[in-house]
Specification:
Elements lengths: L7 E6 L4 H15 L3 E8 L6 E4 L5 E4 L3 H18 L5 E5 L3 E2 L8 E2 L24 H14 L3 E4 L7 H19 L5 E5 L15 E4 L4 H8 L15 H13 L4 E8 L4 E2 L7 E2 L3 H8 L3
Parallel strand pairs: 1-2, 1-8, 2-5, 8-9
Antiparallel strand pairs: 3-4, 6-7, 9-11, 10-11, 12-13
Helix pairs in contact: 1-5, 3-4, 5-6
């Protein structure tokens, strides 16, 4: 084993459940192989709705105010991150809107609007975070500090505008970190949405997760208010992971596009400078087409 490899994977998601849905099985697999997981939550999770399964099997959907919603979704994040042996790091960029607690109402954050309770005034909304040098620097400093072998995040084109905004923020922070000596890789996970047609049907590489699908769905299910039926055998995210597996020649897979491969070099092993790859880069490179 090459101890120069920093066995750390950083996953950065917009909302509570994005990391588990997109790369939960990859993180379970590599955490089991000794990797530390850096779990980064970009927004404050103040919006969204709560879905609850009722005793008759029906699902009741209701809204909560921003303070209750942030508390609820962060508690669910804590639970999921614990399974991955870590605690979430919250960047707390406000979401673009929130529900003040009144059924049906949705308030959008705009210039000059009063912010809801519990939201600091000096952290820009996720939609403009990538334009804010301090926000980019804060994340690039975190990337340098953790020095992961790979950073995993949303793809640039996603129907959810907050997902795309996170991608831009992470990508800017990544290149700033590279400028300051970071040698890890960056990959975008696939949004899985068919709206972009063929664009979303292509990926460069994958992680085979045949043995991790059940545990992935358990992990997804930690986000009870978003994924109350994660244990269902026909849950959409289970079927999507299986469908991708079939496309990749296995039973279950999570799929990615490279932005940059890890570029760490050392001469410790061979006496001359050569690239060093940990297990996750090795699998990703092996599966790259
Ligand atoms: Zn999301």
């Amino acid at each position: 084993m090459n101890h120069e490899v920093n066995r750390n994977i950083m996953a950065i998601g917009a909302h509570a459940d994005d990391i588990e849905v997109n790369v939960g099985a990859t993180l379970l697999k590599y955490h089991e192989m000794g990797y530390a997981i850096t779990y980064v939550m970009a927004t404050n999770n103040m919006s969204g709705s709560v879905s609850e399964v009722q005793s008759d099997g029906s699902i009741k959907v209701f809204r909560e105010g921003p303070v209750a919603m942030m508390g609820r979704r962060k508690r669910e994040c804590d639970e999921a991150a614990r399974v991955l042996g870590t605690v979430p790091i919250h960047l707390d960029h406000p979401q673009r809107h929130y529900h003040p607690g009144v059924e049906g109402a949705c308030l959008e954050l705009r210039y000059g609007c009063a912010l809801p309770e519990g939201v600091p005034a000096d952290v820009p909304s996720i939609l403009t975070a990538a334009d804010d040098a301090a926000s980019v620097s804060r994340l690039s400093t975190l990337i340098l500090e953790k020095s992961p072998e790979c950073v995993l995040t949303h793809t640039a084109l996603d129907p959810n505008i907050e997902h795309s905004a996170v991608c831009t923020l992470v990508t800017k922070a990544f290149w700033e970190a590279v400028e300051n000596g970071f040698t890890g890789g960056l990959l975008y996970w696939n949004c899985g949405h068919s709206m972009y047609g063929e664009f979303s049907m292509r990926w460069d590489t994958f992680i085979q997760v045949d043995q991790y699908l059940d545990r992935k769905m358990e992990l997804v299910g930690k986000h009870r208010c978003q994924m109350p039926t994660a244990s269902a055998p026909d849950h959409g995210h289970r079927l999507l992971t299986e469908w991708r597996g079939k496309s990749c020649g296995c039973r279950a897979a999570e799929v990615f596009n490279w932005v940059r491969r890890p570029a760490r070099c050392s001469k410790m092993l061979t006496g001359m400078f050569s690239p060093i790859f940990g297990e996750i880069s090795t699998e990703l490179l092996h599966n790259t087409r």
